[in-house]
Write a structure and sequence with these properties.
single chain, about 300 residues, alpha+beta, Ribosomal Protein S5, domain 2, Alpha-Beta Plaits, 7-stranded mixed beta sheet, binds cytidine-5'-monophosphate, kinase, ATP-binding, EC 2.7.1.148, 4-(cytidine 5'-diphospho)-2-C-methyl-D-erythritol kinase activity
């Protein structure tokens, strides 16, 4: 966390990548038990918080217009949840969200912003909640928020609230591609329930602890994203993205993240990520393409 300006705090809200995502049949409340290997990119939004008597949120950055209509912004929901948990409803802050991640893109941007709000306000208001406590508060804001509070390589289970931080995981090089189509997460889950018969989870019940990139890659490759097939049916452009990524020799694994439409491709070297990203940006100027590093366990 860095400070710039009197009393102003800043936190980074990194993009979430589901290297694998297994989804079981829904519970009676409609939520789906899942199992996911999650890592975070060095690309994301930034949230600033300054002392103020009222709670307010200003939107900035390239994707601010896409959020402007949203009256249920997860940043404010998180701030309200934190004030309630602290039993201090009077607390105020001036929040500014620098929005760099495309909205409704499967990278957990809204959840990452909510998690960043919990972290930055916990510090600004000197509440002293632990990471575990912030993750629990975040679970009522959104299913992906606890993972984003931890924001390090982890296994996510339950409906997102059961987190196992991985003690060993290597940094990976990747390219993220978003074809610019917003995707409704509930629609994709509903499409999955219609199109597939699912009995349980796959390989991730064997704990994925891997220190070297080859083992991590093998583990990711052995998994899948159960939401990919229904998302491709709803938005065929996702299939185009995956096909284009798979056409590069350097790409070891191409897969959709979350409920889409963003996809990632794992490559061995940062230079390969830059090469793939440059080539795709040229052939598809309407796609958002980004070479990234997916952080390893600290
Ligand atoms: O909790 P959140 O608002 O992020 O979830 C968005 C939607 O995704 C939910 O309304 C639900 O339809 C679906 N979902 C699900 N099972 C999960 C997580 C999300 O069905 N484990």
């Amino acid at each position: 966390m860095s400070e710039s300006g009197p009393g102003r705090l800043t936190v980074f809200a990194p993009a979430k990548i589901n290297l694998t995502l297994r989804v079981a049949v829904p519970r009676p409340d409609g939520y789906h038990p899942l199992q996911s290997l999650v890592v975070f990119a060095d690309w994301g939004d930034t949230l600033h918080a300054s002392p103020a008597s009222d709670l307010s949120l200003q939107l900035d950055g390239p994707f601010a217009p896409a959020l402007a209509e949203d009256t249920h912004n997860l940043v404010l929901k998180a701030a309200w949840a934190l004030r309630a948990a602290a039993d201090q409803p009077q607390l105020g802050a001036r929040l500014t969200l620098d929005k760099h991640l495309p909205v409704a893109s499967g990278m957990g941007g809204g959840s990452a912003d909510a998690a960043a709000a919990l972290k930055v306000l916990n510090d600004l208001w000197e509440l002293g909640f632990s990471t575990r406590a912030l993750a629990e508060i975040g679970s009522v804001v959104g299913a992906d928020v606890p993972a984003c509070v931890w924001s390090r390589p982890l296994l996510m289970e339950g409906i997102g609230e059961e987190i196992r931080v991985l003690p060993a995981w290597p940094e990976l090089n990747a390219v993220i591609v978003n074809p610019g189509v917003p995707v409704s997460t509930p629609d994709v889950f509903r499409a999955l329930d219609r199109c597939e018969d699912r009995t349980g989870f796959g390989v991730l019940s064997r704990v994925p602890v891997a220190g070297d990139p080859a083992a991590a890659l093998a583990l990711a490759a052995a998994g899948r994203n159960d939401l990919e097939q229904p998302a491709v049916i709803l938005n065929p452009v996702i299939g185009d993205v995956l096909a284009e990524l798979n056409a590069f020799d350097a790409v070891r694994l191409a897969r959709m993240t979350g409920s889409g439409a963003s996809c990632f491709a794992l490559v061995d070297e940062a230079a390969m990520a830059s090469h793939v990203a440059r080539a795709l940006s040229e052939s598809h100027p309407d796609w958002i393409v980004r070479p990234v590093r997916l952080a390893g366990a600290a």
